Amino acid sequence: MTQEDEAARCHRAKMAKRKAAQDAEVAGKTIAAKGLLMVHSGPGKGKSTAAFGLVLRALGHGLKVGVVQFGKGAWESGERRMLEKLGRELVSWHTLGEGFTWETQDRARDEAAARRAWGKALELMADPVLSLLVLDELNIALRYDHLPLDEVLEALRDRRADLHVVVTGRNARPELLAMADLVTEMTLVKHHFAAGVRAQKGVEF
Questions:
Q1: What angle do CA 63, 204, 68 make, to 5 degrees?
Q2: The whole model's pTM is what?
C-alpha cells in the first residue's frame, strides 16, 4: 500500500467515525419542528442582514413572512425594495419607526411610534398563515423602555407554536435572551465607519 493509499484509508476511517457520531447526535433530537424565537444582538454589523437572510430562505420554500421595523424610519433599504416587489401575499412589510431616538429627540413620539409598530407586530402574529416574523430593532425600543418589557415577553411567549420570530438590535434585554431559543451576538472586530467611510447603498442599506 502506497503512502497515498494509507493516507486515504486513514481519512475515510476518520470521516466514518465522525459521521457516526454526527448521525447519533441528530438521531437524539426528538422535536421535529418548533416555532423559534431568535435574537440577533451585539455591537457588530449584520444583525438585520442575517434576519433578512432568513426571510429569503423562508420565501424560497414558499412561506409567508412579515417584517416590522421599529427604528429605521424613512430609510429606503435595498432589501425593502426587493422584498416588496414580491407582493403582500408573500411579504407583509411595515416600517413604522421615525428614525433613531437621537434624531427625533422626542420621547413621546418615540413611544407612540414603538406602540404603532408593536400593534402591527401583534396583528401579524395573529395571522395564521405567517411563518416568519422579523421584529427589526425591537431591542432598541425595549432598551429605551418605549414598550413595556413584560407585555412584549408575554406576547412572544404566547404566540402560536409554529411561528418563527426574529428580534434584532443592540443591547437585547437579558430577559429576552433567557427566553430565546437561539441567540447570536454580532461581535465588532473592525468597521469601516471608524475610518471615516459613510453608510453606502448595497452595504448598510
A1: 40
A2: 0.85
User: What is the rounded CA–CA span in Å between residue 116 and residue 146?
Assistant: 11
Sheet with 91-95, strands from edge to edge, namely: 91-95, 64-69, 130-136, 164-168, 37-41, 182-185
Maximum distance among all alpha carbons in the chain? 78
Task: Give the Cα separation of 120 and 101 in Å (integer).
Answer: 20
Provide the 8-state DSSP code for 103. Answer: H
The answer to whether residues 106 and 115 touch, using CB atoms and an 8 Å cutoff, is no
Q: For residue 183, give every residue at least 6 positions away whose Cβ sits within 8 Å of its Cβ, in sequence order, or none.
A: 38, 39, 41, 172, 177
Half-sphere exposure of 194 (CA within 13 A, CB side): 6
> Other CB atoms closer than 10 Å to residue 2's CB: what's the count?
7
pLDDT in tens, the chain (205 residues): 788 877 778 888 888 888 888 877 777 767 778 999 999 999 999 999 999 999 999 999 999 999 999 977 666 787 888 888 887 889 999 998 765 555 556 788 889 999 999 999 999 999 999 999 999 999 999 999 999 999 999 999 999 999 999 999 999 999 999 999 999 999 989 988 888 888 887 777 7
Q: Which of 64, 171, 51 is nearest to 125 (CA)?
A: 64
